[in-house]
Every structure is written in structure tokens, then in C-alpha cells.
């Protein structure tokens, strides 16, 4: 049976194959303004973001359940799963429980569940690494070893204009979110070693925020490797971020994508999420 790469929807990958390897997305869900929104490629993202911005009620998110993962596992005996950081979601725990159940029914199956300790574009980079190794004919064990090593050389930075949902859902102190909004500041942050969101600094204005973002990337060990930029309805800023990276690292490979509903829920309109390789 074929090798399969499975990510939850925070990876922002809509393709059903990555480098010729089967890929399946398991969606998270969101409750906004009394309605359930499933984070799938066919979601009306404009309508979702409009509803999110204008609701007066608290909005929440929910991870996939065990059955959602089991359904995704079907038809394969070499499975690589990558989830949103376990520090912020139960997605990893649900996937791990599903893997145990699937293995009991399919004892020859090999399943690895990665806790990305991150979100968004960093998951994509991990998935693409696995696909590249699998396409090169590497064994399951070789892929596991190489991907675990690669994970140590990945990082995530983000620049956010609106911290409302991060504050409302306890991901950052509510007071920090409120002050940033009042002062109209961009907040620069990262996913730390525990997979928790950590604020690194602030900037006034989009241009300064992008410069600060690159400075923090370099400080973290970026030296011109692969970069994936995901944005929330802000392609212009993503393109400008790509330009500033290439101005400083001309040989860098930089690609741009769009955040799905879950990443948009936290990054909010105008937000940038940048996954990158580091030393």
C-alpha cells in the first residue's frame, strides 16, 4: 500500500499529493458567531473572516477527533502524520490515539506522529521534507531519522496586526493584545521550543515589521535556506517580505501561500506566518 503524509489543516496545504506522495488533510473546526466552520479548502474564507471580525461572541476552535484521523489513515501502511503544536491543541493527542487503534487493527502498519511544536508553514516544510525523502526511495526508518533531525533546523516567526483571538483564547495575555490594538502595533513572535507562542518584539508600521521579522529570523539562525510565507489576505505584504529576504539572501528559495481558516483565526487579517530553515 502507498506511503501517505497526513497533516491537520493548520499546515495550509490543499494539494492531494506532495512531490508525488499521497497527502491528506484532516480539518480542525471553528465555532464563530454560533456557526460551525470546517477548515477545508472549500470554506468561504472571505465570509469566515468577515464573520470573525464582526461577531460580538467569543469564538473557539476544536481539534479533529480520533475517528477523523482513522479515516485519513485508511489504505496505507506507512503513514507520516504532522500536527499543530500540542501546546495549543489536542490535535497531536487525537492523532496519537488514532495511531494506536489503527496499529492494533493493522499490526504491520508503520505510523509516525510528529508534534510539530509549531503551526502553519513549518508543518508544510516538514511535509515537503518527508515527501522528498520518500520520493528518493528512503526507508520508513531513514525518513523518520532524517525528518527528526530536520525538525531541529526549522523555525517559525510571525508578524500580526490583530491579537484579539490569541488574547481571547488565552494564547497570550489579554492585556498585551489590548495594548497592541490600541497602539496599532505589529507584534513579532515565534513558536518556542515548547511549542508555545512567544512574543519577541513590536514595530510600528508594516515596513518596520517586515524588517524586524527578518532580523529575528537571522538572530534565530537563518542563513538563506528555504522559506515558506503564509499570509491572511495580505499577499502584498508577503511579496514584500519575500523581496526583503531575497535582497539579503539572493539564493534563498522563498514561496508564498495563503492561511486556511484555523491559521487565519489566530493570525487574523493582515498577519504573516514565516516558516524557515536555520542553522
Characterize the structure shown.
The chain is of the alpha/beta class and 279 residues long. The chain folds into two domains: 3-152, Rossmann fold; 153-278, Hypothetical Protein Tm841, Chain: A,domain 3 (2-Layer Sandwich), CATH 3.30.1180.10. The protein is built from ten helices and 14 strands. It has helices spanning 45-54, 66-73, 91-105, 121-135, 140-151, 164-168, 174-183, 206-220, 235-248, 261-267; strands at residues 3-8, 17-18, 21-26, 29-32, 35-38, 60-62, 78-83, 110-115, 154-160, 186-191, 197-203, 227-231, 254-258, 272-277. It has a six-stranded mixed sheet, sandwiched between helices. A hairpin with a 5-residue loop joins β10 (186-191) and β11 (197-203). α4 (121-135) runs antiparallel to α5 (140-151). The radius of gyration is 18 Å and the shape is globular. The two termini are 36 Å apart. The mean pLDDT is 91.
Key traits:
single chain, 279 residues, alpha/beta, Rossmann fold, Hypothetical Protein Tm841, Chain: A,domain 3, 2 domains, six-stranded mixed β-sheet, five-stranded mixed β-sheet, 10 helices
* C-alpha Rg (nearest Å): 18 Å
Helix segment tally: 10
Give the SSE order as H and E letters.
EEEEEHEHEHEHHEHHEEHEHEHE
Structural class: alpha/beta
How many domain units?
Answer: 2
Q: What's the count of strands?
A: 14
The outline comes out as globular
User: Uncertain spans, ≥5 residues at pLDDT below 50?
Assistant: none
CATH topology of the largest domain: Rossmann fold
The major beta sheet can be summarized as: 6 strands, mixed
Strand content: 25-35%
Write the layout of secondary structure elements.
Blueprint: E1 3-8, E2 17-18, E3 21-26, E4 29-32, E5 35-38, H1 45-54, E6 60-62, H2 66-73, E7 78-83, H3 91-105, E8 110-115, H4 121-135, H5 140-151, E9 154-160, H6 164-168, H7 174-183, E10 186-191, E11 197-203, H8 206-220, E12 227-231, H9 235-248, E13 254-258, H10 261-267, E14 272-277
Parallel strand pairs: 1-3, 1-7, 7-8, 12-13
Antiparallel strand pairs: 2-3, 4-5, 4-6, 9-10, 9-14, 10-11, 12-14
Helix pairs in contact: 2-3, 4-5, 8-9
Amino acid at each position: 500500500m502507498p506511503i501517505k503524509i497526513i497533516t491537520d489543516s493548520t499546515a495550509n496545504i490543499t494539494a492531494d499529493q506532495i512531490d508525488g506522495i499521497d497527502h491528506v488533510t484532516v480539518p480542525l473546526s471553528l465555532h464563530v458567531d454560533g456557526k460551525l466552520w470546517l477548515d477545508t479548502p472549500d470554506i468561504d474564507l472571505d465570509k469566515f473572516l468577515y464573520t470573525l471580525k464582526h461577531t460580538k461572541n467569543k469564538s473557539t476552535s476544536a481539534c479533529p477527533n480520533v475517528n477523523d484521523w482513522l479515516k485519513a489513515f485508511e489504505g496505507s501502511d506507512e503513514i507520516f502524520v504532522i500536527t499543530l503544536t500540542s501546546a495549543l491543541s489536542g490535535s497531536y493527542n487525537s492523532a496519537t490515539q488514532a495511531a494506536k487503534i489503527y496499529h492494533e487493527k493493522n499490526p504491520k502498519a508503520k505510523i509516525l506522529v510528529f508534534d510539530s511544536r509549531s503551526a502553519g508553514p513549518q508543518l508544510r516544510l516538514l511535509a515537503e521534507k518527508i515527501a522528498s525523502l520518500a520520493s528518493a526511495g528512503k526507508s520508513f526508518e531513514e525518513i523518520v531519522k532524517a525528518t527528526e533531525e530536520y525538525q531541529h533546523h526549522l523555525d517559525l516567526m510571525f508578524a500580526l496586526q490583530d491579537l484579539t483571538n490569541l488574547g481571547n483564547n488565552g494564547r497570550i495575555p489579554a492585556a498585551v493584545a489590548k495594548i497592541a490594538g490600541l497602539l496599532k502595533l505589529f507584534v513579532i513572535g515565534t513558536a518556542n521550543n515548547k511549542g508555545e507562542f512567544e512574543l519577541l518584539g513590536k514595530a510600528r508600521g508594516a515596513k518596520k515589521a517586515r524588517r524586524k521579522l527578518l532580523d529575528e529570523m537571522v538572530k534565530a539562525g537563518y542563513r538563506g535556506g528555504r522559506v515558506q510565507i503564509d499570509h491572511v489576505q495580505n499577499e502584498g505584504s508577503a511579496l514584500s517580505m519575500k523581496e526583503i529576504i531575497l535582497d539579503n539572501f539572493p539564493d534563498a528559495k522563498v514561496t508564498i501561500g495563503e492561511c486556511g481558516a484555523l491559521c487565519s483565526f489566530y493570525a487574523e487579517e493582515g498577519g504573516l506566518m514565516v516558516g524557515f530553515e536555520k542553522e
